[in-house]
Amino acid sequence: MLPKVAIVILNWNGKHFLQQFLPSVLSTNYHAFTVYVADNGSTDDSVNFLKEHFQEVK
Q1: Domain locations in the chain?
Q2: What is the pTM of this model?
Q3: Which of these, 6, 23, 40, 56, could form a disulfide with 12 (CB 3.0-4.6 Å)?
């Protein structure tokens, strides 16, 4: 059994970074992980982008 991993991303107006790297993070062969994004009041629509395109991210 693989150990469970938590990937924690701190975000502030980083929508363009999330668009760039989240697909590769989520396409890994390692499946025992959860991705958490902590948003610090972004004004670039990061939160809505995540809700629309990456429902598996908490």
Answers
A1: 5-53
A2: 0.87
A3: 40
Q: How far is CA 26 from the centre of its chain?
A: 8
Burial of 49 (0-12, 13-18, 19+ CB in 10 A): middle
How many angstroms separate the CA atoms of 42 and 9, rounded? Answer: 13
Tell me: the pLDDT tens digits for 6-34?
Answer: 999 999 999 999 999 999 999 999 989 99
Q: What is the dihedral of CA 42, 46, 44, 27, to 10 degrees?
A: 130
Give the C-alpha separation, 38 to 42, whole Å. Answer: 10
CA distance 34 to 45: 22
